[in-house]
TrEMBL record:
This is 3-hydroxybutyryl-CoA dehydratase. The keyword Protein biosynthesis does not apply. It comes from Deinococcus roseus. The keyword Lyase applies. PANTHER family: ENOYL-COA HYDRATASE, MITOCHONDRIAL, ENOYL-COA HYDRATASE-RELATED. Belongs to the enoyl-CoA hydratase/isomerase family.
Length: 261
C-alpha cells in the first residue's frame, strides 16, 4: 500500500478506485496532489489485477473544484505557467491513454482542472446536484490541462466556447443533454462500479483498449488517416485469441471466456 496524503487508491476486485481526497478545499488539485495522482497512475499501470479505473472525489460536495487557486495565485510569469500546464496535460494524457475503461464518478463540483480530469476519463457519471464548468476566464486564466481541446471534442465547438467564454456552471441535467456526462444517477460511484463490472463481464479487454486507441488517435488526424488507423487496429483485434473465443462462443450460444490474449 502506497502512502498518500491527498488521494486514496483502493482496489475493489478488478476495479481501481482513485479518490481525490482534500474535502476541506473541495478536493482542489495542488501540486502535491498532482504528484500523487501521477504516482497512482504508475501503480495502476503496473498492477495486472486492475482492469478498470474509477476516479471520484472525497466528501459529499465535490468531485474536484479545480486547480488549487491559492497556488495559482502565486505563479510568476509565463514560463512557470507554461510548465505547469504541460505537466498537468501530461498526467491527464496518461489517464486518457490507459488501455482499459476509465470512469469519472462526478459526485459534485467538477470545475476547471476537475472537469479536465473528468474529461480525461472515458465516461462521466454525475450526481443530480453536480455542477460542471471551466470558469478559468473568471480568474484571468484559460483551461490549461487539456480543457480547450477535450471540451469541444465532447460537446462541439459552439457549446464549448459558450461554456469557456461565459465561465458559467453547467448543471447535471444540461451536461447530460449535451453529452458532457453519460448518465445522471443518485449514487454515481456505485453506478460506475456496476457499469465497469458489466463491461468487464461482457467485452474483450484487448478490444476495449483498441477501441479507445482508434478513437483517440483518429481524433488527432485526418479522416483518411483515421480509417487507416482503424484498419490497423482491426487487424490486431482479428489476430487475438479472444476474437476466436468471442465468435466461437456466439456460435455455440454460450458466454465467452475472455483471457485478454
Ligand atoms: N482552490 C483552492 N481552494 C478552493 C477551491 C480551489 N479551486 N475551490 C474551493 N476551495 C476552497 C474554498 O476556498 C473554501 O475554503 P475555506 O473554507 O478555507 O474558505 C472551501 O474550499 C469551500 O469552498 P466554498 O466555501 O467556496 O464553497 P461554496 O459551496 O460556497 O462554493 C464553489 C463552491 C462554487 C465550487 C466555489 O468554491 C468556487 O467557485 N471554487 C473555485 C472554482 C474554480 O474557479 N475552479 C477553477 C480553478 S482554475 C483551474 O482549475 C485552472 C486549471 C488550469 C491551470 C493551468 C496551469 C497554470
Amino acid at each position: 500500500e502506497a502512502e498518500f496524503e491527498n488521494i486514496t487508491l483502493d482496489q475493489d476486485g478488478p476495479l481501481g478506485i482513485l479518490t481525490i481526497n482534500r474535502p476541506k478545499s473541495l478536493n482542489a488539485l495542488n501540486i502535491e496532489t498532482f504528484r500523487e495522482i501521477a504516482e497512482a497512475i504508475m501503480l495502476i499501470e503496473e498492477n495486472p489485477e486492475v482492469e478498470a479505473l474509477i476516479v471520484t472525489g472525497g466528501g459529499d460536495k465535490a468531485f474536484v473544484a479545480g486547480a488549487d487557486i491559492t497556488e495559482v495565485a502565486e505563479l510568476e510569469g509565463a514560463f512557470n505557467g507554461r510548465d505547469l500546464s504541460l505537466q498537468g496535460q501530461d498526467i491527464f494524457q496518461q489517464i486518457s491513454q490507459l488501455p482499459f475503461l476509465t470512469l469519472a464518478a462526478v459526485n459534485g463540483y467538477a470545475l476547471g482542472g476537475g472537469l479536465e480530469l473528468a474529461m480525461a476519463c472515458d465516461l462521466r457519471i454525475a450526481s443530480p446536484g453536480a455542477k460542471l464548468g471551466l470558469p478559468e476566464a473568471t480568474l484571468g486564466l484559460i483551461p490549461g490541462y487539456g480543457g480547450t481541446q477535450r471540451l469541444p471534442r465532447l460537446v462541439g465547438v459552439g457549446r464549448a466556447l459558450d461554456i469557456m467564454i461565459s465561465g458559467r456552471l453547467v448543471d447535471a441535467r444540461e451536461a447530460h443533454s449535451i453529452g458532457l456526462v453519460n448518465e445522471v444517477v443518485d449514487q454515481p460511484l456505485d453506478r460506475a462500479k456496476e457499469y465497469a463490472r458489466n463491461v468487464l463481464s461482457k467485452t474483450a479487454p484487448l478490444a476495449v483498449g483498441l477501441i479507445k486507441e482508434a478513437v483517440r488517435r483518429g481524433m488527432d488526424t485526418t479522416f483518411g488517416d483515421a480509417l487507416e488507423i482503424e484498419a490497423d487496429l482491426f487487424g490486431m483485434a482479428v489476430a487475438t485469441e479472444d476474437r476466436k473465443e468471442g465468435t466461437q462462443a456466439f456460435l455455440e450460444k454460450r458466454k465467452p471466456n475472455f483471457k485478454g490474449e
